[in-house]
User: Which sequence fits this backbone?
């Protein structure tokens, strides 16, 4: 393990010179959409300009490293078409999404300007038991486990009508790797092609432990965002065709595996 910082160009140059990697996967960002409204400047510095620093370090050192940028479906924002593809125009709705848009285009720009092998994975929401507890899926599954165990009484939520295209993170990481094994860099939507509301996630998650979600969930406007992305659904056809990649885990399976993992984690902690 090495330490670097996307806000510090010198640290990136030193690290890359030392490691001389064949492949660079940039998953680094201030990645919380709601928090980006509170810290737009920091979000821009790390999530946007940080990518320029990283690409420039690779370029200046003359490394032949292939580069992956974690682009986001949040860039589609106020969606212009349904489902979203690699050709759908962007309309970002948060400082985070605006920063990701810069990162997307600077990645394309190094490919077009210098012939670098750079790729954007436009990943729709990808979840797993390792998801941070500030994101909605894990917030729900940790609360379900705690409520079932009698450790928590209520779960306070924001906009539960928002719809997302939720896939399993483990499978999406394989898509990232596949992009860097291609002869040329390119941009790909990685999604399931299905959309579900936060409300549906709540229903399934509580149902998994035999509880009725409506008895435990309350709405707190403090979790609403100044501008919301209401409806995301991706079309992963290009990835299916060019990368031979397709999502395997269905929405209900994903909810169950996350709830089961949090129930087990809590039981292990309590022993
Ligand atoms: O889980 P979320 O916070 O994820 P969001 O905003 O869709 O972004 C995630 O996915 C993106 C890929 O599309 C990534 F680029 C990004 O870095 C991040 O990983 O919220 C999902 C939805 C939103 O509409 C939000 O308003 O859930 C809604 N929601 C309702 N109540 C809530 C809550 N979100 C959170 N975090 N907490 C709530 O209490």
Assistant:
């Amino acid at each position: 393990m090495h330490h670097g910082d996307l806000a510090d160009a010198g640290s990136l140059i030193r690290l890359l010179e030392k490691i001389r990697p064949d492949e660079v996967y940039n998953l680094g960002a201030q990645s919380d959409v709601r928090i980006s409204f509170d810290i737009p400047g920091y979000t821009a510095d790390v999530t946007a300009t940080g990518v320029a620093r990283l690409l420039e370090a690779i370029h200046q050192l003359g490394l032949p490293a292939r580069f992956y940028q974690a682009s986001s479906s949040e860039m589609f924002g106020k969606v212009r078409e349904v489902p979203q593809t690699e050709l759908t125009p962007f309309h970002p709705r948060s400082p985070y999404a605006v920063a990701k848009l810069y990162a997307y285009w600077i990645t394309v720009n190094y490919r077009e300007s210098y012939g670098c092998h750079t790729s954007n994975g436009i990943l729709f929401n990808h979840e797993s038991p390792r998801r941070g507890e500030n994101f909605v899926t894990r917030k729900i599954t940790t609360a379900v486990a705690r409520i079932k165990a009698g450790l928590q009484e209520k779960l306070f939520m924001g906009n539960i009508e928002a719809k997302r295209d939720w896939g399993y993170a483990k499978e999406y990481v394989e898509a990232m790797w596949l992009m860097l094994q291609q002869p040329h860099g390119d941009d790909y939507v990685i999604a399931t092609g299905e959309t579900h509301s936060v409300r549906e996630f709540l229903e399934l998650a509580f149902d998994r432990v035999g509880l009725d979600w409506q008895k435990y969930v309350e709405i707190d406007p403090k979790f609403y965002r100044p501008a919301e992305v209401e409806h995301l659904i991706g079309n992963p056809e290009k990835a299916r065709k060019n990368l031979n990649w397709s999502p395997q885990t269905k929405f209900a399976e994903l909810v169950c595996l996350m709830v089961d993992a949090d129930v087990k984690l809590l039981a292990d902690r309590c022993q």
Q: What stands out?
A: The beta strands are 23-26, 66-72, 118-123, 126-127, 155-157, 163-164, 167-168, 187-190, 196-197, 217-219. The domain at 136-162+195-270 is CATH 3.90.25.10 (UDP-galactose 4-epimerase; domain 1).
